[in-house]
Amino acid sequence: MENTPVMRKWLNDFGLSHPLVIGGPCSAETEEQVMKIANELKDTDVTVYRAGIWKPRTRPGNFEGVGAIGLKWLQRVKKETGLLTATEVANKDHVKLALEHDIDILWIGARSTVSPFIVQEIADALEGTDKIVLVKNPVNPDVALWLGGVERLYSANIKNLGLIHRGFSTYEKTKYRNNPEWQIAVEVQNRFPDLPLICDPSHITGKRDMIFDACQMALDLNFDGLMIESHWDPDNAWSDAAQQVTPSRLVQIMKDLKIRKPTTNEENYQTELQNLRAQIDIADQTILDTLGKRMKVAEAIGELKKANNVAVLQNKRWNEILGKMVLEGEDRGLSEEFVLKLFKAIHQESINHQEQIVKY
Ligand code: PEP
Ligand code: MN
After folding, report:
1. pLDDT per 10-residue tile (average), the chain, 360 residues
2. For residue 39, what is the DSSP state?
3. Could you count the other beta carbons within 10 Å of the beta carbon of residue 246?
4. Which of 54, 135, 147, 191 has the most crowded CB, counting CB atoms within 10 A?
């Protein structure tokens, strides 16, 4: 798929002097709730009002959305506040109803992007539309699946496209609800620089206190917009209560964020530098996470050696590792000297950990 200026045009047409902000509740609950939040968001940086009408729930028995009636409430939002409207569609019936109710932006949720069958059904139902369609990343960290979703829509002659990064599901518990894996978003952004990229810090963090930092990270990585779940009474929301913020908190977040606009050379430089530094931060974090995991494995080996009364240092194995790493390092442009120094330091740390275990 070629990059085309058409993709960015819809965002440029908004003529915003700040990142695009999509705000609104996780779910439309009642007409009053929808209108109350919309009225609180209308004279803010928010351009687009989001509300889930059909809610994909991981386990049955939770609130599954109000259904088509909510589309009428969104029409009322648009009429009375001038906000554009957005909702999730997950099959051809949703698409038909959303188009009939003139919803401006349709997004494909993370649980749909994982399924090429569903994405294709949605793409066929939307064929040729000039509505804006945003593709959330799939729940699993698979770049090809995400890009494939975009390609299916593009092939159905849908040109106003964009991406939403909402983080990735992991078996391991992390401080995030969905691990951001920022490097994946950066990779997709490099692949399709003309596709507007929006961050959803609400589903990434799952906690309202962590939303600001995720927003700042996204802006430092040159994201084009933010989708932030907001509710007038977050704690009593019918879905995703822990991650929603009040409209006034949303306004404060936008005020406090450092937004860098690439206008002058100096600002271009600062923006680019900030972007590269943010990428370095991600890489450093990944290095530390990986080293932490490696030490845990080394400790397990220490336990095993202790149980079997085997010496901590196994020279033959270590020399094999070093030789292999020097060669693999060369492929990545790393000097032999550096790779040797690095792995000797790592090895020494492993031996220290193992000795602690064997000693007691
Ligand atoms: C949502 O935006 O409310 C939603 C269900 O998100 P996701 O598809 O990212 O889980
Ligand atoms: Mn939600």
Report:
1. 70 95 98 98 97 89 93 98 98 98 98 98 97 98 95 96 97 92 91 94 98 96 96 97 98 93 71 88 92 92 86 79 91 90 88 83
2. H
3. 16
4. 135
Pocket test for ligand 1, best of 140, 203, 229 (most atoms within 8 A of CB): 203
| CATH 1.10.287.950 is held by the domain 266-359 | no
Ligand closest to 239 (CA) is: 2
Atom of ligand 1 nearest to the CA of 202: 2
- The correct answer on CATH 3.20.20.70 for the domain covering 6-259 is yes
Atom of ligand 1 nearest to the CA of 240: 3
Ligand 2 centroid – CA 33 distance (Å): 16
Q: Which ligand has the nearest atom to the CA of 87?
A: 1
Cβ neighbourhood burial of 110 (10 Å; 0-12, 13-18, 19+): buried
Q: How far apart, in whole angstroms, are the C-alpha atoms of residue 48 and residue 12?
A: 14
Cα-trace Rg, the chain = 24
Q: Whole-model pTM?
A: 0.80
Q: CB within 6 Å of ligand 1 — which residues? A: 26, 52, 56, 109-111, 136, 166, 203
